[in-house]
Amino acid sequence: MATLMGVAGLAVLHLARGHFTVSANLQTLSLAGVPSIVGLDRAGIPSFILPGVLPRAGLTGAADRSFRDDWYHRIHVLPAAIDFGNLVSPMSHAVEVWNAFLSPVSLTAIEETGADGVSLTGQPPPPLVYGALTSRVHTVAASTQGSPVLSARYVLRFGNGASSTLTVTGRRVVVFGFAPNWAGGITERLAWLTDVLESYDGSEQRIRLRSVPRRSFEFQLDLAGHDVRVLETLLHAWAARVFAVPVWTDQTVLTAPLSAGATAVRVADAANADYHAGGLVAFWSDNQHHEVGEILSLAGNALTLKQPLSRGWPAGTRVFPARFARIDGDVLVAHPTDALASARVRFAVEDPSPVSAIDGPSTYQGYRVLAWRPNRIEDLTDTWRRKLALLDYGTGPVTLDDLSGHPVMGKRLRFTFGNRATIQAFRAWLHARQGRAVPFWLSSGQSDVEVTRPIHAADQHLAVKNIGYARYLATPTIRRNLVIHATGGRTDYRRITGGSEISADEELLTLDSTLGVTLAVQDVLRISFLDLVRLEADAQELFWETDGIVQAVLEVRTVKE
């Protein structure tokens, strides 16, 4: 094979009709377009070697992929999946389709499946050209009309063979707009879950299993005419699905009309109602005319809606917060005539209803004290029971073993709350109890101890009428806590550490600390025993007689300190 060799620094060489050329500075050299090999010789002098004939070499390889292939040379749909969640009003969402190819492509077809009540608009129909590295914005709209479960799929096909998919999901929610008959009231139920482990001596370990209570509403419906037919249609078609149910107990009224397209709503006393960001608000005119919107934000009594109202609402329209709920259990519908129907329905709320746990202001021995006094419209009843082991063979004497050594006392208390702020405070107190989990102090509400002598500031004892305390409870472990109510609204909590008899009619109770104030006998209004108790059941009910009056019955039992 012939080669041509040279040394850098020589004059430019021209051979054979220009087929062989050397650059002036000997940086490049070619023969008939074939590049040379240029380098240094052993003396460090630049030189070159140019083969006369260079054989072709067969090379194989593969493209080195990088993140550019994730972005380019494809079609992007952003977002590729839309979840409308619970659809209570018409909603829409923007979708960007980006041509990431380096050349224009043409949208040739849009294939849709399951698009019942869903539309893809915002751009001309195919064929539609997308420029290189350009995008177009489409709009996906979903209406409340259609199948209960929303599951649509759009496949966008392009002329170069590329395709992309858009999925749209959600569930349509029907408003249960039949107003209750307030003659029967509304029962709201809050149910926690607690595992109570009781030891041999009556001590308890309480384990909270449900941080947020399950909530339900139960009320009576009395309907006539067309309302009966609509109710039965809903029970046939939708009874197992989710409804948007107004919280009928939290009613307010529009003071000014709202026009279609409005997003700002003012309500009254939102702090004591079930309004919250991300929740629902219902506008109600009658059983057949209503609308529900989603709350985007809440500031005081001002609500901002996520979507504009579809229609206008006049002043005087009733406004309620609303909750997603399912019918719980069977629905019994009675038909007194062919045009009337009466039904009792219970709804289990689907979305959690957390309330900030706010306890009473007074604390004693590490536990809160119940501040409200029960309504004595009915007798307060106490139940005394002991933890006994019975040994009875049926043929001889019966043997009893008192396992705990102290009684368990149950109490039934009725409370009446007449304003919404107090009702909300009671609800917050129930959340602080967490069902059976958290105990509290409860006053007997009776004059259990009657003082016989003045109480001086430095006294650490009470002289009282003899009730047998020193005789039976000289070193008390139960029934040893007192609340002392005095004139001027003064309340003191003290623990009895011992007792001694002064006479057959008088005894002395020793306290754990002084009162620090002098009280005459007539200044002491009432001294009651305090019991550490817990709720008997995890489920508690609020009976709404009206939207501003609530009756609640608490059943409690004493627990060991």
Notes on the structure:
The chain is 6% helix and 48% strand. It folds into three domains: 72-172, Sandwich (Immunoglobulin-like), CATH 2.60.40.10; 182-349, Elongation Factor Tu (Ef-tu), domain 3, CATH 2.40.30; 355-560, no CATH class. The chain has 561 residues and is mostly beta strands. The protein is built from four helices and 42 strands. Residues 1-53 have low confidence and may be disordered. It is elongated. Strand 4 (29-31) and strand 5 form a beta hairpin. It starts with a strand and ends with a strand.
Put the structure in a nutshell.
With 561 residues, the chain is mostly beta strands.
Record the SSE blueprint.
Elements: E1 3-7, E2 14-15, E3 20-22, E4 29-31, E5 34-35, E6 37-40, E7 46-51, H1 68-71, E8 75-78, E9 81-87, E10 91-99, E11 105-113, E12 118-121, E13 128-130, E14 135-142, E15 149-158, E16 163-172, E17 174-175, E18 186-191, E19 194-198, E20 204-208, E21 214-224, H2 226-237, E22 243-246, E23 252-253, E24 264-266, E25 280-286, E26 289-299, E27 302-305, E28 318-327, E29 332-334, E30 340-349, E31 363-364, E32 367-368, E33 381-391, E34 399-417, H3 420-433, E35 440-443, E36 461-465, H4 469-472, E37 481-486, E38 491-501, E39 506-511, E40 524-535, E41 539-546, E42 549-558
